[in-house]
Amino acid sequence: MPEGLYGLSNAALDTALAKAAPRQGGPGRSLERPHADCLLATLQDRRPAADAELPDTGVGLARERLLSSVFIASPDYGTCSSSVLIVAADGSRQLVERRLGPGGDPLGKGRLELPP
User: Fold this and answer.
1) Which of 21, 45, 65, 70 is deepest in the core (most CB within 10 A)?
2) Sheet holding 93-100, edge to edge
3) E strand intervals along 28-92
């Protein structure tokens, strides 16, 4: 897989969703020295996709807007965790996960470092 910044959502791999596409201008965009906390901050983006980019899954426009954001926070549904995996050129890996409660309140964070 080529070097780059990749996004993964609850949809199948390679599904074209605005929420899984890396957004321009967010923190942590440098791939020279990516920082897990900056990338996790990017995953807290609550901006909905433009209406023209929304799918029609049958849940109505308001719900499609809510579900299109990278980070979802509503009274009845939302993001419960965000994870970042950084693979360095030397083969070392760092996995960082942020766990979230109702409304997106932070519950904890875990970190796993794997040598090359």
Assistant:
1) 70
2) 81-87, 93-100, 106-114
3) 81-87
